[in-house]
Amino acid sequence: MLSAQAAPVIDVQGLVKIYGTHRAVDGLSFQVRAGECFGLLGPNGAGKSTTLRLLLGLSQPQDGRIELLGLPIPARAREARARIGVVPQTDALDPDFSVAENLMVFGRYFGMRSSDIARRIPDLLDFAGLGGKRDAKIGELSGGMKRRLTLARALVNDPEILFLDEPTTGLDPQARHLIWERLKQLLKQGKTILLTTHFMDEAERLCGRLAIVDHGRLIAQSTPAQLIAREIEPQVIEIVGDAPLAWAERASRTPGCARVETIGETVFAYCTDPHPLAAALEADPVVRGLQRRANLEDVFLKLTGRDLRD
Amino acid sequence: MMPSRSLFALPAPSLRFVPIYLRNLLVWRKLALASVLGNIADPLITLVAFGYGLGALLPRVEGVPYIVFLAAGSVCMSTAMAASFEALYSAYSRMQVQQTWASILNAPVELEDVLIAEWLWAATKSMFSGLAIIAVMLALNISRSPTLLLLLPVIMLTGLAFGGIGLCFNALARGYDFFTYYFTLVITPMVFISGVYYPMTALPEWLATLAHWLPLAAAVDLARPLVLGQWPADAAQRFAVLVAYCVVSFVVALALTRRRLRT
Questions:
Q1: How far is B94 from chain A, CA to nearest CA, in Å?
Q2: Cα distance from B253 to chain A (closest Cα, Å)?
Q3: Do A167 and A285 belong to one domain?
Q4: What is the pLDDT of residues A116-146, one digit of tens each?
């Protein structure tokens, strides 16, 4: 387990980044300790990727303080990047090179010797499940394989910290689970992971702690379980039927129902005690009610709203 | 408030650009044949078609057969074109389309390392084109003067100058279409007034004065006497003009690229 006294390997205080009049990052602060998996959650445009760029020293903040592995950013960002691996949102693999050449060429950017990189390549490919694809062209790889190669590429310098920007967006469930498996292995090896995502199950599975970010501001930060316990009623009943408004009205008057939201034809009733409403629903044969435990997605939607962000 | 480094800050000396340069070289090696053919076919056809075809109809130009006159212009034009092409279309696809620069910048290198690598690479690739035309000159016995060796620094500087100018426009580009304008509005007119196809004395005086200070004219003024086995007139001044284009264009390209990417 983590010791609370351990110095943070990522320390962000009051970070501000403004584009024109848009405050993309607006006073963000968080800390990540060695060996942790920390998730930055937020809707599209919340400032997650901008935050990663600022952390890597690729963008200059207007205000705030960043330290990575004890190094001030952006002043000593290059030294910090030597000890960090990045899985960007777009793979940006080199399409003219084979799988192994991609790793070789990328390792050289870190000043590594070709012979040292060559020695690492078989292990990296095995880890990524690409052992048989060493000489394959990038165009021949599936989306999941490209993602795993990008992960292998981020590990070429044996980094202490991994930044992953939406690592499983666009992948099918099989590919997604394989990536999660590999990330868990890396955590076991003691790597620190900073992950952005808008998949709540991803955050719940991987992250020891997470921060929900919206409009560049941190709106909640804790462990997944604590966030659910603190921010939202424990039970949710989803009601699907013909007359949502009537049921929404009725649910809001039912004891044990703290909050009711209607989205299209579905009523979401957030309950401290689901039994009275469940009983009422059972008596009505026309509507369907689905009772479940509240999850991180409920917290996320409560805190960031249901408006589309594209 | 974080101190923000000036857009015009000069890069500190470092060899970090080498692996980035090697990356481009490695890609080129895979596609070398197609790439070389593409780069030299056009100027080669121009040289042979105009040199022999048009040359048969023309009297001697500046005291030499037309193909000998044209050869020096062809070397410079081919070099300028190849450097421009690499610094525009190819660099743009690495910067914007393939996001190659973005992934390189996650490694411990700086934007100036990437730009130095691209600049030197554009010059290298343009030298391949210039050398190919020199090889044709040797093969067709257009010139076999020992002073041809001095063409090497001239084509290197020409490549650096046009690579640097190309990188400036690369940093301003919103898409590939932009480069079509650059070629038709900047490069093509420059070719026609820089003494590649005919002596600049054929130009109106005001245009000749303007053209005199263009990088391609400086390159042609240096190259043509060297093809004929002579020492160029005003060599130091013409050399200085080319060097100035190299230095200024690179500093401006670096500033514009920083403004574009370091947001």
A1: 9
A2: 18
A3: no
A4: 999 999 999 999 999 999 999 999 999 999 9
